[in-house]
Amino acid sequence: MDPTEIIKIVTAAEKYTESQSVKPHVDVHPAMKLTIVSCMDSRLDLFGILGLDIGDAHIVRNAGGIVTDDVIRSLAVSQRSLGTNMIVLIHHTDCGLEKISDDDFKFQIEREIGIRPSWAVEAFRDPYDDVRQSIARLAASPFVTHKQNIFGFVYEVDKHQLVRVDPYPS
User: Fold this and answer.
1) Which DSSP string corresponds to 1-32?
2) Element (H, E) at 90
């Protein structure tokens, strides 16, 4: 990262701090009792897309929005300690994980540094199918306590449209 970019974000953080000084304390428990699991893609403005405010929801992001053990860990904390009872999964079109394969990616890393990663990349071909896979993982997890309110979506990046995914298509 260019050092001027660091200066830019530090300056923005200082302005943000000044603007927040008159706002009331926001509770640690999400107001909407919602946790969103989404891809880390920088094109996804979840607050804008979903009309969220600070304090409305927990947001868990990773490459692909994949439901990993660490995502389940975060969901367990969110549900059991912080009162959430709804999960929204948001994957998207044109995802970087659609453009790679697990084996090739791991091989590149091993060739570069001499160690093959122990973790799965979890590349996929179809974001709709991957949302269904994620819903199935959540439903099967004993650590996720609120399974009745799991919803899946794919964000169509070129259309700027959120599309609901039927977990059990015919």
Assistant:
1) --HHHHHHHHHHHHHHHHHHTTSPPPPSS-TT
2) strand 86-92
Count how many residues are written for the chain: 170
Token reading at 74: 């975060």
DSSP-derived secondary structure for 113-165: HS---SS-----S-HHHHHHHHHHHHHH-TT----TTEEEEEEETTTTEEEEE
Rg (CA), the chain: 18
Decide if 140 contacts 146 (C-beta within 8 A). no
Q: Picking from 5-19, 57-71, 92-106, 127-141, which range would have the lowest pLDDT averaged per residue?
A: 5-19
State pLDDT tens for residues 64-74. Answer: 999 999 999 99
Residues 43 and 92: their CA atoms lie apart, in Å, by 10
Residue 151: count of CB within 10 angstroms of its CB: 16
d(Cα 7, Cα 1) in Å, to the nearest integer? 11
Contacts of 64 (CB under 8 A, 6+ apart): 39, 91, 95, 96, 97, 122, 123, 124, 130
Per-residue pLDDT, averaged over 142-155, amounts to 97
